[in-house]
């Protein structure tokens, strides 16, 4: 510790105020002939228990302070999308190798012609048929190994030619596979030739809409609801939609049901903005869940929201009570405004002179009269 002492000579003030003295700052008050001791601040509270630290989140505002701008409220965090199943990244749609339909037709006719020539070569063509076709009479060498090999080659060519013919349609695609391996997707239209050994799976790639059945949901207070949604979607990647999941339509339905369990919705007709916000959130969640399996979701909108059967009666009574309370408040406000306007006009124009008691009685009578009149009008 350190001690300091100060001794200042006392000054005598003039007996009377000087007329020429100018007003100035008041002198600081000093303690004369007193000793002061400097005590460190941290020693004053060394015996007090230390306060328990309280975790406080930092205050964050959306705009700078001191610029005249109002702080912006932070928006609530959006719901995070749930984890999606792993899909092979190499499973991506790619075009398959196909040939024009004319090539398949030509191969089929060549195979049929080869079978006819082989039959004539083997001598198994009836004479009447040979005469009708204008073929020369041939004794034939019989059915030997060479003839059977020619039959097999011509028959295989004909079956491959005619068996691979397919007709593509607009809005439809084929997913091709061989021994469990993806071989490409065909989106072409018209007559084409596809390898007949490949397994074909038809996929609808048009824009589709699906109206769901009533699904369980809840509002912001946890009240049970039943919601019907309209989903607009299409298959974007046929390989992932067909081979990535067992049934992409069932998977989409489960995604919608899971999103409804996470997003609070309100019965239609209550708050329009909340329905729009719920639709946007549902669309974002379902689109994020369906994208890894090749589905493109454009919108998920609740088209009908009702209370669950177990709470429908109670919520109906609650809504009626709320509407009745709002109507009563509106009527009371209107009556009070009318009474105030009437009393003010009578007083300002000097038609009546009222003291406090008379004013109270007039207000009471006018209130009863206005309420009775509005009640008769309402009935």
Automatic annotation (TrEMBL):
InterPro entries: Band_7, Band_7/SPFH_dom_sf
Domain Band: 163-319
Biased composition (Basic and acidic residues): 71-80
Region (Disordered): 1-88
Biased composition (Pro residues): 16-26
Biased composition regions of type Polar residues, renumbered to the chain: 1-13
Protein name in the entry: SPFH domain-containing protein
Species of provenance: Streptomyces parvulus
